[in-house]
Amino acid sequence: MATQSQGTILVLGGGLMGLAIAHGLARRGESVRVLSRRRSEAAGFVAAGMLAPHAEGLQGPLLALGQRSLEQIPAWVATIEADSGLHCGLHPCGIVVPFTSGTERDGYATAPWGLPLDRSGLEREVPGIGPAWKAGLLFDQDGQIDNRRELMRALEAACVARGVTFEEGSEVLELLTEPGNPDGVAGQGRARLTGVRLRRADGQEHGLACQRAVLACGAWSAHLLPQLPLFPVKGQMLSLQGPRQALGRVLFGPGTYLVPRQDGLLVVGATSEPEAGFSEGLTPAGQRQLQEGLAALLPEATHWPPMERWWGFRPCTPDEAPLLGTSPIQGLWLATGHHRNGVLLAAITVELLVGAIDNGWQRVEPELESFDWGRFEPTLS
Ligand SMILES: Cc1cc2nc3c(=O)[nH]c(=O)nc-3n(C[C@H](O)[C@H](O)[C@H](O)COP(=O)(O)OP(=O)(O)OC[C@H]3O[C@@H](n4cnc5c(N)ncnc54)[C@H](O)[C@@H]3O)c2cc1C
User: Fold this and answer.
1) Whose CA is closest to atom 3 on ligand 1?
2) Which of 91, 306, 326, 329 is the most exposed place for a label (fewest CB within 10 A)?
3) pLDDT per residue over 147-184, tens digit each?
4) In ligand 1, which atom is closest to the CA atom of 38?
5) Is the model's pTM score more than 0.85?
6) Cβ–Cβ contacts within 10 Å for residue 305, how many?
C-alpha cells in the first residue's frame, strides 16, 4: 500500500459537502486530499440553490439546523470569496410560498416565521402570479445562492488556494479497516479505518493509507458503507431566460419552484423521483410536470426562451435529515444525506464537522447527536 503522509485527511467525494469540508479543514491548517469520481455528477452542480428552511416547511431539529446554517451563510460565503477571489452568488431575495386558501396558508408548518399575504399581497410580491393562488407566506429571511454557476467554482478555487490537493477521476472502491479493541472504552470496539482502495483516472487500482477520512459521496455514500440507510432521489430541472428583474423573489409552489437569478435566468425545479433510483437522463413526464408547474405559478414565463435541462440525485435518508458525525468505523466521519437542503446546510455542516474533527471528537455538539447515524441503528439488520 502506498504511504499517505501522516495526518492527511482524505475527503471522499468532491461534491458540495466534500469541497466545503475540505475548505474548512484546510483553513484550520489540516492537510487535505479530495478523491473525486466525477465532478459533473455532483448534486452541488444540479441544485436550485434555495436557502429555504422556512419555505420548505422544515420542522423540529432539522428546522433548527437549517435556521442556524442560514444565519452563518454570509460569514461562510465571505471566507470562500476571500480565499478564491470569486463571487458565490449569494442573494438574500426572500421566498414567497403561495396557497390556494388562507386556511391552507395558516396550517403551514413554518407559518409563524412568515408574513401572511392575501391575493393583493401576492400580486405585489410576485407580479404576474397565476390566478389559482389566493394567499401566501413571505419568508424574507430565506434566499438563494447560485451554486451551479458560482458557488461550486468558488469553493474549488478556495480549496486550491488553501492547499487542498485533488484527485479528479479517482473512484473510492472500498474502505479498508482493521478490528477495533472490544475491551477498550466506548466506541473503540468499532473497526478502525486504515485506508481506502481506489481506481484512478488511468484505470489502475491502488491502496491509499489514512487514519482519518470524511465520507461525502452524496447519494452514492451507501455504496461504500452499506449500513447507511441512504438512497437517491432523482430531480429534474430546467431553466429559461426571462427579462432582468421580472421576478424579485423565489416562488416556492407545491411540486414546482421558480428561482430567479439576478441576470434574469429562471431556474425551474424540481421533480422528486425516489422510484427512479440512479437512472440517468430526462423524462417526458418529468419535464411536463415542470412545464405545468411553471404555467400555474407564472403563466407569462411559459413564453420565455428555454436555456438548459438537467438532472441529479439527492442523497436521502428515511427521515430526510442528514447523517453527520461519527460512523460505524473509527476515523471515518459522515457528512452526507442532506437530501433537498444540502446547499442550505453546507455552512453548519462545515462548522460542526470541522469543529469535531479538530478537537478529536472530545466535545460533541448536541446538534450532531440529533443527526447521528445511530438513530437508525435499531432498524438496521
Ligand atoms: C434537483 C435538485 C435540486 C436541489 N435543490 C436544492 C436547493 O434548492 N437547496 C438546497 O439546499 N439543496 C438542494 N439540493 C440538494 C443538494 O444539492 C444536495 O443535498 C447536496 O449537493 C449534497 O451534497 P453532497 O456533497 O453530499 O453530494 P454531491 O454534491 O452529489 O457530491 C457527491 C460527489 O461524490 C462523488 N462520489 C460518489 N461516489 C464516489 C466514490 N466512490 N469515490 C469518489 N467520489 C465519489 C460524486 O462523483 C460526486 O461528485 C438539490 C438537489 C437536487 C438533485
Assistant:
1) 47
2) 306
3) 999 999 999 999 999 999 999 999 999 999 999 887 76
4) 47
5) yes
6) 8
pLDDT band at 378 (very low <50, low <70, confident <90, very high): low
pLDDT at position 245, please? 86
Cα 219 to ligand 1 centroid, rounded to whole Å? 7
From 36, 39, 62, 236, mutation site for ligand 1 pocket: most ligand atoms within 8 A of C-beta: 36
What is the rounded distance in angstroms from the CA atom of residue 153 to the CA atom of residue 87?
Answer: 9
Q: Please work out, in degrees rounded to the nearest 5, the angle formed at the alpha carbon of residue 196 by the alpha carbons of 194 and 199.
A: 160
Instruction: For ligand 1, say whether the CB of 260 is within 6 Å of any of its atoms.
Output: no
Pocket-testing residue among 196, 217, 256, ligand 1, by greatest number of atoms within 8 A of Cβ: 217
pLDDT bin (cut points 50, 70, 90) of residue 367 is confident
Q: Where do we find the cell 490537493? A: 165
Closest-CA residue, ligand 1 atom 1, reads 235
Q: Average model confidence (pLDDT) for the chain?
A: 94
